[in-house]
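Good morning C.,

I know you're traveling, so I'll keep this short. The sequence:
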Amino acid sequence: MQYIDDAEFQIAIDSDAGGRIVSLKWREMEFTVPFRGQVHTHGWYAMAPWAGRVKDGLITSPTTGEHQL
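The tokens, ready to paste straight into the viewer:
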């Protein structure tokens, strides 16, 4: 876990969870969703630089097959 802390902001980053921000506080107010039992339902996960990237523009679905973007 990595921490960034100053007088007004406190940030906790879970490096074991891919760099997910697990806590973001400003003046003691929490702005992240707490862990609720599933990995994808808490905190913030930065998708950069991978956001919006799909290998070869191809999406494969088990129900509808392949879709070329």
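Safe travels,
E.
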